[in-house]
Amino acid sequence: MGLVKTSILTAISTVIRVFTGFIINKLVSIYVGPSGLAIIGQFQNFVIISSTVGSGAISQGVVKYTSEYRDSYSKKRELLSTAVVLTLISSMLVGLFLNIFAPYLSYLILKSDIYSHLFNIFGFTIILFSLNTLLMSILNGQKEIKKYIIVNIISSLFSLLFTSFLIINFGLLGSLYAMVLNLSVIFFVTLFFVLKSSWFKIDYFTEGFSRESGIKLGKYALMAVVSAIVVPLSQMVVREYIGSNLGWSSAGYWQGIWYISSMYLMVVTTSLGVYYLPRLSEIEDKSELKEEMLYGYRVILPIVIFLAFGIYIFREYIVYIAFTKSFMPMVELFKWQLIGDVVKISSWLLSYLMLAKAMTRLYIYTEIVFSLLFVVLSILFINEFGLIGVTYAFCLNYLIYLVVMITIFRKGI
Fold first, then answer.
1. Looking at 3-17, 54-68, 192-206, which range is the least confident one?
2. Residue 274 in this model has a pLDDT that exceeds 70
3. DSSP state of 12
4. Residue 410, Cβ density class (10 Å: 0-12 exposed, 13-18 middle, ≥19 buried)
5. What is the pTM of this model?
6. Could you give the 3-state DSSP secondary structure of residue 128?
7. Would residue 112 be called left, alpha or beta, if left means φ above 0 and alpha means ψ between -120 and 50 degrees?
8. What is the dihedral of CA 106, 257, 401, 234, to 10 degrees?
9. Three-class SS of residue 173?
10. Are 50 and 124 in contact (CB under 8 A)?
């Protein structure tokens, strides 16, 4: 399935996800407010870190090698069996950690130990989170795009109903509960679609651990763990700094603009994950690889620019519709955040090659360096310019990252 068709299908899924996300976000704005949204952002980042580590951080590797071994029964069996072992071990270890340190984590992340039971529940459900991630990665690697998208649509619709109910009845606590329970339920939907796939054989998952496959997946685990820790952690540090120095309402405004960016860019980032990683993984010829990447720029970048421009023009209406009047101060954050989004996608089109070709060391270095740089630039610019400084930092950080990516791949391809 080509990039255009994949983008259209993922766009349908994304429109539904944006729509459901919009309603959920509106409810959060009404029932929780800017400061509550900031707390939700902190917990969301923590969930991302925990669930990635709990899944063994191998999802990108599973996508790559499932795609690569699609026609080889023996290799795919070794891969998927190893992936199951790693996922189960990782999720049980992280679950144990969450249960043991629940009171401490509650105070550290949510500033109160009254939420410790939330971390206990997450500790028990993370195994379902992790298995769902594994099965979705397998569907992606098998290029079962339609099933992949159907599961995402079902997930979005279930999340809308479940999360809305919890927010309306329990406010902030309900929103936090939804984050630790949603994907656990969706696991059973994903499992149903995997079991109904023509390629599915139970033998794929029963061989046990393979050292060779473990090493291959380990390279991706290193990349994913670093990315899953340093990127959300950098956001948590910046949000904490904003909350401590400018107030938690200001942190909520930044969380709001971050939410808008993630929503409209979802159609692009989903297409990159669903189409780009498997496609770049299977290309060996350098000239073909260059052409595929240029094709990505010709198709994706104009879409991002068009969307960013449209959002900037209607920014006040978007804030009023998506949030409430209390979020209007975030209007000043749009300009440089949206410019940064365009630069971000420009750099990501290049950086995906590091994932596709398992450039482990280079990927880890750049993730750590630019996450740290974002924190440093944010603190400096917030001190100098106030809240809008965080958008200056975001844009400048990705501009430097883009320059580094261009330099690396002009030499390496």
1. 3-17
2. no
3. H
4. exposed
5. 0.79
6. helix
7. beta
8. -10
9. helix
10. no
Both tokens assigned to 150 = 């159907």
Helix (H) or strand (E) holding 327: none
> Which structure tokens are listed for 398?
């990705």
Alpha-helical regions (H) of 323-388: 334-356, 360-385
How many percent of the chain have pLDDT more than 90?
34
Helix, strand or coil, per DSSP, at residue 57: coil
Indicate the pLDDT class of residue 19, thresholds 50, 70 and 90. Answer: confident
Instruction: Provide the pLDDT for residue 355.
Output: 64
Q: Which of 212, 231, 224, 273 is nearest to 90 (CA)?
A: 224
Residues 316, 277: Cα–Cα separation, whole Å: 36
Cα(321)–Cα(26) distance, integer angstroms: 8
pLDDT for the residue 172: 86
Q: How far apart are the first and last CA of the chain?
A: 25
CA distance 401 to 330: 26
Highest-scoring range by mean pLDDT, 61-70, 264-273, 380-389: 380-389
The Cα 32–Cα 168 span in angstroms is 10
Give the whole-angstrom CA distance, residue 100 versus residue 123.
9
Tokens of 17: 């996800």
pLDDT band at 4 (very low <50, low <70, confident <90, very high): low
**For residue 202, how far is the Cα from the chain centroid?**
29
Token pair 């061989």: residue:
207
Q: Write the CA distances from 315 to 257, 309, 321, 323, integer angstroms.
A: 10, 10, 10, 12
Which 8-state DSSP code applies to residue 275? I
Q: Are 385 and 377 in contact (CB under 8 A)?
A: no
In the chain, domain spans: 3-412
238: left (phi over 0), alpha (psi -120 to 50) or beta: alpha
For the segment 326-373, what is each residue's pLDDT rounded down to a tens digit? 889 999 999 999 999 999 999 888 877 776 666 778 888 888 999 999
CA distance 404 to 363: 12
| Arithmetic mean of pLDDT over the chain | 85
Distance (Å) of CA 268 to CA 5, 58, 245: 13, 22, 34
Residue 354, both tokens: 């590091």
Alpha-carbon torsion, ordered 222, 42, 370, 134, to 10 deg: 30
